């Protein structure tokens, strides 16, 4: 029963989570923390902080981790599959020949989806801020983190900010009695070590295999595995890596690449699912459904190996008093990073007119005070956008 619950919860999120990785974290919090209560705000912030350090799509890794805690290794797989399947299916079909789809014809409701993402992220930041920044020290740390991230605008700066916040927490939060620890069921450290070893082993073995064996499936898998393993900062950062792998080699043209990127930004789910489009649209075999599945699995496999492999060690580490004090600083910093993301790119890409602000405000009220589920607010935003933006 729990396997079905994990899969269909993730599937609903995969069908309704528009707005990119930061918005996904808002949708996830609404579903997993507020409604399902599978994890607390502190535990959720711990996961977000960990996934900010790891390469790969942070929102997908958070979902995998929650699925792992809820239903074991199969739960992690089902959580990833449910969240990724809708966008991957759309992108593979588009890659198979729906090139006549003109996304520009639907800009009015696509813009409405961007606007409602503002509401979702704002609610998440407010809720996490109340729980994770209850005193002036942590509020100040969150604001400092926000300012640094906004001024620097770099994925690596985010990692440095989190490290600095953790060090700050060790030295300045020692007297705090607020040391929550909600255990996650992550499996043993032996299994974790095996998964981490597989992550690095594949980075070494796959390039050797593609040189030894002239099989295009191996070349394709290696290219997308390396792209997924070496990217920090989320889905948009992986695009230059993928473009360098598939356009110069002639697998897809640049026009086909950019058309798929446009569609990937207009649909729910993880942007990493764009890999399935590239595999399906490739002019060279393996392509079609097989190519799409190979590229999709290869791009997400590093994230899966890393999150399953690192969580048992992370679970042990965050029990230590100094680490738990560091997590108080880290969690406050996560709020600041999300607050920065609320402004850029979420707000700056959606709020242009008084109409936009009004729709975002209504969405926030429905989420925060009327307790409507996020998927219902998304659907309402699509209907309203036809009248306001059409």
TrEMBL record:
Keywords, alphabetical: Cell membrane, Membrane, Transmembrane, Transmembrane helix
Main location: membrane
Transmembrane segments: 6-28, 73-97, 109-129, 141-173, 193-212, 224-242, 289-314, 326-346, 358-389
MF terms (GO), sorted A to Z: chromate transmembrane transporter activity
GO CC, alphabetical: plasma membrane
Subcellular compartments: Cell membrane
UniProt keyword Membrane present: yes
InterPro entries with a match to the protein in the record: Chr_Tranpt_l_chain, Chromate_transpt
Membrane protein topology class: Multi-pass membrane protein
Keyword presence, Transmembrane helix: yes
PANTHER family in UniProt: CHROMATE ION TRANSPORTER (EUROFUNG) (PTHR33567)
Protein family per UniProt: Belongs to the chromate ion transporter (CHR) (TC 2.A.51) family.
Descriptive protein name: Chromate efflux transporter
Organism: Leptospira ognonensis
Gene: chrA
């Amino acid at each position: 029963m729990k396997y079905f619950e994990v899969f269909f919860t993730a599937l609903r999120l995969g069908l309704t989570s528009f707005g990119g990785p930061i918005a996904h974290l808002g949708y996830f919090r609404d579903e997993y923390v507020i409604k399902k209560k599978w994890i607390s705000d502190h535990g959720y912030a711990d996961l977000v902080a960990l996934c900010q350090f790891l390469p790969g799509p942070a929102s997908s890794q958070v979902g995998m981790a929650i699925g792992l805690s809820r239903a074991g290794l199969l739960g992690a797989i089902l959580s990833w599959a449910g969240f990724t399947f809708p966008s991957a299916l759309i992108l593979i079909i588009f890659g198979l020949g729906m090139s006549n789809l003109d996304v520009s014809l639907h800009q009015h409701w696509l813009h409405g989806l961007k606007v409602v993402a503002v509401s979702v992220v704002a609610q998440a930041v407010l809720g996490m801020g109340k729980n994770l920044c209850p005193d002036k020290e942590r509020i100040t740390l969150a604001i400092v983190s926000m300012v640094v991230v906004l001024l620097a605008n770099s994925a690596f700066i985010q990692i440095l900010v989190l490290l600095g916040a953790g060090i700050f927490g060790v030295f300045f939060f020692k007297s705090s009695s607020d040391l929550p620890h909600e255990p996650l069921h992550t499996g043993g450290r032996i299994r974790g070590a095996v998964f981490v070893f597989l992550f690095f082993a594949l980075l070494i073995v796959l390039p050797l295999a593609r040189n030894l064996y002239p099989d295009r499936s191996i070349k394709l898998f290696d290219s997308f595995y390396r792209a997924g393993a070496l990217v920090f900062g989320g889905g948009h950062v992986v695009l230059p890596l993928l473009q360098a792998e598939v356009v110069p080699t002639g697998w897809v043209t640049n026009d086909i690449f950019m058309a798929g990127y446009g569609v990937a930004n207009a649909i729910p789910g993880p942007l990493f699912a764009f890999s399935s489009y590239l595999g399906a649209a490739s002019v060279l075999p393996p392509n079609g459904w097989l190519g799409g599945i190979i590229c999709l699995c290869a791009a997400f496999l590093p994230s899966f190996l890393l999150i399953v492999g690192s969580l048992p060690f992370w679970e042990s580490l965050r029990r230590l008093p100094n680490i738990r004090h560091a997590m108080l600083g880290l969690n406050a910093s996560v709020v600041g990073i999300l607050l920065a993301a609320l402004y850029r790119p979420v707000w700056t890409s959606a709020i242009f007119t008084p109409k936009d602000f009004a729709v975002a405000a209504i969405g926030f009220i429905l989420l925060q005070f009327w307790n409507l589920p996020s998927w219902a607010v998304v659907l309402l935003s699509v209907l309203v956008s036809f009248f306001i933006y059409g």
